[in-house]
Write a structure and sequence with these properties.
- The protein is 38% helix and 10% strand.
- By secondary structure, it is α/β, with parallel strands linked by helices.
- Helix 20 packs parallel to helix 22.
- It starts with a helix and ends with a helix.
Length: 595
């Protein structure tokens, strides 16, 4: 590690990566700060999220289950040459990079990353001959988690940037498509723009005025005191003061760093650091752009409800042309309607996640009900590029049709998980302009118990509406109280009406094995079907009282019988995922903990 870091203060970098003593000044409000920018995923296949970018034309849901193909044969002469160059001294790597054609640089870097050659990676980056360095082009798809580990490639990238030479031509550093560890995300946002400033620009009061102007907020006494104080904390930090850790960008040029996701909560003030970074982009040579912003309320006991508004300040200075997705989760009641006015300017949003935002819409012509629906409709109608929408865990009873009509474009993704809906809402969905465009649809947990029989959606009506979505490829119908009596009719119509289906989730529905096998026979007729997720337990109490090993054994035997049936039908390619009933029922809690 000492050799890799050269003359740079290694202890300082290590302390940053370990998060010791605030190399990142993450100010918390009496609670431990949360990880920022890292969105976890489980290893099992599940439906995509609203803010994901999905190529539905080439879905390969089982790819991660297959062993990677071994590279056979002798490496090409070109690759052997690249390997030899990467094993040389850094001076020879620089000389080779200046002599070879520029289009070979990505191959050199790809091989250096594959064989974990830190000196080669750092040298190649600091002398990069092309204007764009996209890591998606030099890292194999199976290594998409390469930035989740600290003190690895993230450290090499940072070292390559701060050792940038006059030969380096990087104008765009693209890290999209990768999950970044929390510390690396904080380093990029909080420090990189500041490290690119010249010494004479590091004046807190002057920078504070630039930030206030860019954020379009009044430079009040509060801002006049708070911003300079925060800037002082950052500018006086030893990392900024260390001349070896500066980022040197040629005069008149900028380097844009692109990352996918960043998350803000009310429990820490990292959103202020992002505001500083964003609002200084007119003067900092390093500019950070984020594709997706996640804002989640996590108020604790004693906090004011209005505190949950604090993270929304990041939207003040946000570039409307770079934001593709916005996720607002678990907001307190009324907060969404208070901030909706600030969302309208992001007309280019393609993805919006409003899970569990306490959105409460009702039918009727009273003033309060009409205003609520009108605000929701106006907000959604302002997004001219919106094609992915998640409204899960909100109360939309009798109002779904109005929401769907307000959308400008037909959706490719829609999640209504655990929404309060009625049969009229389902009918509106089936007759909407979105019915023939949806590629992914989550209707799980919408057939819930209601004290009013006319408000409850029956599984029979749900089955009828499902067949309106002719192009759907991923369908989630989990936890909908399916009855065995309705399965034969569903199976009869499934092959003709859902020909493009590739994934089906019915976990949490208690069905007999005979019904499940009947569904499997229908799915086997779908040419492109890949993944079936289900529950084999017939009773939650039996599962709870039974021995865990016995429950697992029963599930395994049921899976073997299903696979045997599919094999006899010539469909060994379909993957069967059996989940316990308890897991399917408590999956909501896991989803909350996940983010």
């Amino acid at each position: 590690m000492e050799d890799m870091m050269g003359q740079v203060n290694v202890k300082l970098i290590v302390r940053f990566l370990e998060g010791n003593n605030g190399l990142f000044i993450v100010r918390t409000r009496g609670r431990r700060s949360e990880a920022v920018g890292q969105i976890k995923t489980k290893c099992r296949v599940k439906m995509y999220k609203a803010l994901d970018r999905v190529n539905y034309a080439n879905l390969d849901l089982c790819r991660h289950l297959r062993q990677p193909k071994k590279k056979l044969g002798v490496p090409s002469l070109l690759k052997l040459c690249c390997q030899k160059i990467n094993s040389c001294h850094v001076d020879l790597i620089k000389e080779a990079l200046s002599c070879i054609p520029n289009h070979l640089a990505p191959l050199l870097l790809e091989i250096a990353i594959d064989v974990v050659a830190p000196n080669a990676v750092i040298t190649l980056m600091s002398n990069w001959p092309l204007p764009v360095l996209c890591f998606g082009d030099v890292v194999h798809p199976e290594n998409k988690d390469i930035f989740t580990e600290e003190m690895g490639l993230d450290l090499m990238v940072f070292k390559g940037i701060i050792e940038r030479t006059k030969a380096c031509r990087i104008k765009v550093l693209d890290l999209r498509g990768f999950k970044l560890n929390a510390t690396f995300s904080k380093l990029i946002v909080q420090m990189w723009p500041i490290l690119s400033l010249k010494k004479h620009q590091l004046k807190p009061k002057k920078l504070a005025k630039i930030i206030a102007k860019a954020a379009d907020v009044e430079f009040s006494r509060y801002m006049e005191e708070l911003l300079p104080r925060m800037l002082n904390d950052i500018l006086s930090h030893e990392m900024v003061q260390d001349s070896q850790l500066l980022i040197h960008i040629p005069r008149g040029e900028k380097m844009v760093v692109k990352i996918d996701n960043i998350q803000f909560t009310a429990s820490n003030t990292f959103f202020m650091d992002y505001l500083i970074c964003n609002c200084l982009r007119s003067v900092t040579p390093v500019v950070i752009t984020v594709s997706n912003i996640h804002i989640k309320s996590d108020l604790g006991i004693g906090d004011e409800v209005m505190d949950s508004l604090a993270p929304f300040i990041v939207l003040k200075g946000q570039d409307i042309n770079t934001l593709e997705g916005l996720s607002l989760r678990q907001l307190e009641e009324g907060i969404f309607f208070m901030v909706s006015q600030n969302l309208k300017k992001f007309s280019k949003l393609r993805s919006l996640d409003l899970q569990d935002c306490n959105i409460y819409l009702q039918e009727g012509k009273t003033r309060s009900r009409t205003i609520g629906r009108a605000i929701m409709a106006r907000t959604l109608s302002g997004f001219e590029n919106l094609v992915r929408l998640d409204l899960s865990f909100n109360y939309l009873l009798g109002c779904l049709g109005e929401i769907l009509d307000a959308l400008r474009l037909p959706l490719e993704f829609l999640s209504l998980r655990n929404c309060d809906l009625n049969d009229h809402d389902l009918e509106c969905l089936g007759n909407s302009k979105h019915a023939l465009s949806l590629q992914e649809l989550n209707l799980s947990k919408i057939c819930q118990f209601s004290i009013y029989d006319n408000d409850r959606i029956s599984s029979i009506n749900l089955f009828k509406v499902v067949f309106c979505f002719k192009k759907v490829k991923l369908l989630n119908l989990a936890q909908n109280h399916f009855q065995d009596a309705s399965i034969p009719s569903f199976c009869e119509k499934l092959p003709q009406n859902l020909e493009r289906l590739q994934y089906l989730d019915i976990a949490g529905n208690v069905l007999t094995e005979e019904s499940i096998l009947q569904i499997c026979k229908s799915l086997a007729k779908l040419k492109h079907f890949q993944w079936f997720r289900l529950t084999c337990s017939t009773n939650l109490l039996d599962e709870a009282l039974g021995h865990l090993n016995q429950a697992n054994e029963n599930a395994l035997q049921a899976k073997l019988r299903i696979c045997s049936l599919l094999s006899a039908l010539g469909r060994k390619d379909i993957h069967i995922e059996v989940v316990r009933l308890s897991y399917a029922i408590f999956v909501d809690l896991m989803d909350v903990m996940e983010v």
